Amino acid sequence: MGHNQPIAAINLDEVIPVGAPWGGPESISFLSALTSFDMYCKHRDGSGLIYCCNGQGTCYGACTRCHTGRQERNHESQYHCLLAISGLGVLAPHNQALSCRHEELAEQMLPDYQDFILDFLGYRRARLEVSLGKEHLQRTIIESLRNGLPVLFENHLTGKWCVITGYNDAGDTLLGFDGKRELFKRADWYESCANLLVFERETRPERAVELAFIRMIAVLEDTASRAEDIAFAQSLLDTARFEIMGADELHDVYMYTAAVIGYYAESRCFTRNALCNALCGRCLYISHTPNQVGEDTLLLNAELLEAARFFQYSHDECSWGAWHTMNYQFKEPDGDTIQAFRKHETRAQVAQYLLAIAKNDRSALQALQWLPLESHN
Are both 264 and 185 inside the same structural domain? Predict the structure, then answer.
């Protein structure tokens, strides 16, 4: 085959599938796809990480799925780290449209999170919009894959990101992972394409570790100043409003509240995991360099541990307590469940859980503000 002759098919089969290996939440698909890309391009197979709860204590009980393979566990742990670094892990999810699709909410409330995390990781990239035309995008994808680099692809029909790992039929059919951990083949890719992210082989060095903590502090400070999380909790106490509320609006408020709680549950748990792994030097991105006594003994940073405890309490006690109060079953609720939400005592208890999460966020902020960060005023 001549050097310039097109290759009919290519697949970078060492790319880790997108999505949590155990079927749980990695709801920000951009970060999940980026994790797969980053692990592949930087040859990060997790060989230096320990992310399990098998009694060794290396992650302080922060991890999850010990039965999965090492690479899959580390995909999950790296996603947790990127969620925290981006600021999404400490975001308070509130808007005025009663919509809480996590990906959509992230782009509305923290629109720079993608560029921030890409800059933090040091990636040179180009964002190509569908208006450039199918032929141009197809050539770009083929060139990138022939150079050994996957491409990130945003599907405007689903609002989700996936990672393109290969192609068939000289580029007419794309291969990749869309979050379901199964290799897809898509011939109609152009019709669903919103934009592409293509990368250069060489990257800049990763940014200073302290920028990750500065970012978290800035997002938490913005939440505290806006106080929208507190205002939303208090809105559930408006008895007169709920007494006259129509059935459709009551349903929408119930589902929005459940989704807000779901965002808190995922984000605060995963941020806690990231901080705990940073404490013991097991996080690839935000290992807060610990003091060492001997070769293996690490002294924990009290501020990080304190912040992690507040985030974990928000997950373990507050989020699950609120869901239980609402009788939320992770599916469309029946009419009786919706009507029960009209009762003041039900909403008051949910509001108390949400106010506790707000208080925990502010307490975590106070702990993080004690970190010795030179660039934070």
Answer: no
